[in-house]
Amino acid sequence: MHWPSRRASLQIVLVVVLAGCVGVPEAPLAPSAAAVADLPAAPPALVSGFHRVADVERVRDAIVAAAGPVGGAFSIGESVQGRPILGVRLTAPGDASDRVRVLVDGGIHGNEVYGIEAAIYLAAFLAENYGRNATVTRVLEEADVRVVLLLNPDGREAGTRGNSRGVDMNRNFDVDFGNPSPLCRSQTLSPALPYYAGPRPLSEPETASLATLMEEFRPQIYLSHHTGRHGLIRPWSACDPPHPMPASDDALFEHIESWTRANTPYQNTGTAEETAQRLFPPGAASGSSSDWCYLTYHCVALTLEVTEHYGEQSDDPLQWSKEVLPINLHLLENARAYAQWRIPA
């Protein structure tokens, strides 16, 4: 099996907007983690409550402003109904070519609201603690992170799992696409089915935009935030995987699972089939973005199931965003080792 080159670079993409063309002063130099007084990491002050579609641009801009020289805004395209798909880029100033490339997203399912909030919270946490906390500062010196805050704005607006055409976008990627087995949650038989995969792979503007971002960015680590299982899912999710997983890859995923169970409340870890058994078997699901990233770019791809809740519940979303944060931080702190498919020392 041919994999793309495993470049050991950690990257978070930074966009710097300069006013005018001539005589603009350089951006202030980033503090080195070694020079930062390592104050305790602070919960981000910028985020609270639920963020609806109309709130996302405002909170994105506030995060970028708080990040200063390490932050930038981007959009990867538009939804079926023309809503922008917005993101935040975070990395320290300087040459980013040797940084690990980390892609984070939330809200590929519009009703998985707590996954959206977890992605927003992570971006705000990194932005507000850079230059204050040495660990966060070091992360952004070594990694180039892109956070897509809400992949499915039409679904979030309507409170639906799928996009405005009824497509389950986490079944719309070309990995065992549309497997019709009744044991597989990836059926293309009818648009009326809850896991309708769409008419063909990457048929939706939202999934095509994410695939384009992956092609341009070539993530080495991919963290996708969902809800429904309160656990951690690793490849393969597909009902009929394209090839057996190499033993070394399996060992690394097993290590991440073990760390998660030992250090967080997330005890339900494994493949999609394994993590679904206690909730709603069958649970394998072809056409997922995580399988696509793993297959196409040999990235360390993980689905973080933040909570079992769908939609907006009475629970404070900050509670769940804080609970899943240690998994994100562990992966970011050890991003260079994981990007090289090495178990951290």
What is the topology?
Layout: H1 53-67, E1 71-78, E2 84-90, E3 100-106, H2 113-129, H3 134-142, E4 143-148, H4 153-158, H5 205-217, E5 221-226, E6 231-233, H6 247-263, E7 268-270, H7 272-276, H8 289-297, E8 300-305, H9 317-333, H10 335-339
Parallel strand pairs: 3-4, 3-5, 5-8, 6-7
Antiparallel strand pairs: 1-2, 2-4, 6-8
Helix pairs in contact: 1-2, 2-9
Classified in CATH, the superfamily is Zn peptidases
Element order: H for helix, E for strand = HEEEHHEHHEEHEHHEHH
Q: Report the sheet with the most strands, covering strand number, pairing sense and barrel closure.
A: 8 strands, mixed
Backbone CA Rg? 19 Å
- Estimate nothing, just give the exact number of structural domains: 1
* Approximate helicity band: 25-40%
Q: What is the overall shape?
A: globular
State the separation between the terminal residues, measured CA to CA.
Answer: 28 Å
How much strand? 5-15%
Counting DSSP E segments of at least 2 residues, the number of strands comes to: 8
CATH architecture: 3-Layer(aba) Sandwich
* CATH fold type: Aminopeptidase
Poorly predicted regions are: 1-27
Q: What CATH first level would be assigned?
A: Alpha Beta
Note down, in words, how this protein is organized:
The chain has 345 residues and is α/β, with parallel strands linked by helices. It has a single domain (48-339), classed as Zn peptidases (Aminopeptidase, 3-Layer(aba) Sandwich). Helices cover 33% and strands 13% of the residues. The chain has 10 helices and 8 strands. It has helices at 53-67, 113-129, 134-142, 153-158, 205-217, 247-263, 272-276, 289-297, 317-333, 335-339; strands spanning 71-78, 84-90, 100-106, 143-148, 221-226, 231-233, 268-270, 300-305. It has an 8-stranded mixed sheet with strand order 1-2-4-3-5-8-6-7, with helices on both faces. Helix 1 runs parallel beside helix 2 (113-129) and helix 2 (113-129) crosses helix 9 (317-333). Residues 1-27 have low confidence and may be disordered.
